[in-house]
Amino acid sequence: MQKRILIVEDESSIRDMVAFALRKADMEPMLAADAREAQLAVATTVPDLILLDWMLPGMSGLELARRLRKEALTAEVPIIMLTARGEEMDRVSGLEAGVDDYVVKPFSTRELIARIKAVLRRSHGDDGSGILELGGLKIDGPAHRVHAGTDTVPIGPTEYRLLHFFMTHAERVYSRAQLLDHVWGGSVYVEERTVDVHIRRLRQTLQPWQLDGLIQTVRGAGYRFSATA
Description:
Layout: E1 4-8, H1 12-24, E2 28-32, H2 35-44, E3 49-53, H3 61-70, E4 79-83, H4 88-96, E5 101-104, H5 109-123, E6 131-134, E7 137-140, E8 145-148, E9 151-153, H6 157-168, H7 176-184, H8 192-206, E10 215-218, E11 222-225
Parallel strand pairs: 1-2, 1-3, 3-4, 4-5
Antiparallel strand pairs: 6-7, 7-8, 8-9, 10-11
Helix pairs in contact: 1-5, 6-7, 6-8, 7-8
């Protein structure tokens, strides 16, 4: 089945160029020129991935990313930000808003398609099979859901993979580089700083259930998941 990719980009030339490249890669493009059109599109058909321009008229791509992460329909849909902002703080802002990857303009369609395929592999992998319970959390792999007690925990795709890895490798310390290899697949596009951002987001996700302490920082070594106080 073709993957549906929502392109949220106000410049029609870029939108058309990306749509053409997606069709050549056997993917189905969905088009939106601004945040409002994007929200209408996902309400009708949930895409497999969203390409989101940072600079949009009305509502910025950054704000739209935050809103998409809060909506049940799109909380787990991976997002790639298209941006002319290459500075580290801008990239971190995007990651903290729920973006899974970013592509700096100008970009080649070949690079973009490679990024899309990499993110889709990471987000729709088969490493989440089975039921896993530890430390007050339960991962339902077949349903791709996380539960804390009787509550469903709203969690982004990257945080889901990170939590699944931690829970299947509890009480072991992993460095940032090791987490990149295991969770992100050693992608050359991802920096070690990214791990810190997603660890922080995972803790924020678990905080309402007072489970953020399960993710522990081991100074000078990395991180571990521990259900032991």
